[in-house]
Here is the input.
Amino acid sequence: MGDPAKPLLRALKGEALEQPPWWLMRQAGRFLPEYRQLRAQARDFVDFCLTPALAAEATLQPVRRFGMDAAILFADILLVPQALGQTVEFGEDGPLLEALAAERGIAGLRPLELGRLEPVYETVRLVRAGLPPQTALIGFAGSPWTVATYMVEGGASRDFRRVKAWAYRDAVGFSALIGLIAEATITYLCGQIAAGAEAVQLFDSWAGVLSEAQFERWVIAPTQRITAALKGRFPLVPIIGFPRGAGALYTHYASQSGVDAIGLDTAVPLGFARELQRRIVVQGNLDPVALLVGGAALEDAAVRLRRALAGGPFVFNLGHGVLPQTPPENVAVLARLLAEPLDRA
Ligand code: CP3
Here is the structure.
């Protein structure tokens, strides 16, 4: 159970804090030299994620350096397909999976192998023991739709042709895949929470490529299933949903998905964000490129964001992950900016 006095948890419960809590998606990773050094100690990326001592250290590195209000568990959304029996590798150009074929459906997958995910829970326990008392620990998983895109496309995709074609041609078969991922995600997130995660985020990085009807079926419905199950077991643990790129459908996601807070991507206009904020906690949405550029671009964007959203329940974050080319000094500058009162910032 999370300590309700932690700033991140207060904001996620709906409190407007004078200094909004902050963390950054992908705050652990290649932009930090200490991460690259640690990463070199593991055979491959999956091994790295599944070695608790290394993953816990990677989780703690950014918090130690910059003092964010939250740590995000170091792991990956593609550990779930791996625990379902799919081959997952990380090459120079991103993840490579042995793609599922629509004709075979979920026949090639196995029931969730619980032991495969056990090391992640151990990482959570190690991180909780190593965090400063005011810092919260966020667990996470990919949303079923986003995880399915990787499982069916075999990696990153430009047009999502294979996965969308499966969903259109055989909605029943595709729904079996989405259901399988949803159930695995519930088990996985409950395991993280039981081990000590104090909030969880669902990354739906590819929510923005679907039509309204497909969004309803493959984003809203499985997200509801997950939020209902988590709330049934852990009613006090806040859930953040990040339906990246959802555009006008953000409103629908905010009211229907069952999440407590909503992650805004960089393209969400601040006036629209303020409307959303009347009903739900908002998180976001600084452009990761403004952070990479630094200087006046970073300062202006950060001040504008705080002026727009810091009057209500708000968690300061990026609109997508930290880019690997980001100078660490820019994150230090951002930390200092956010520690200043707004009128002097
Ligand atoms: O700091 C954190 O945010 C925690 C760790 C984290 C990672 N991946 C580590 C990682 C989190 C929250 C993720 C989420 C994730 N993984 C998403 C959703 C967020 C998003 O970016 O849209 C997605 C789509 C993935 C799948 C994935 N993993 C891709 C597409 C890639 C390759 C591209 C890339 O950024 O490198 C990964 C690899 C990955 N996941 C790395 C890290 C630190 C880089 C691997 C390395 O160190 O060699």
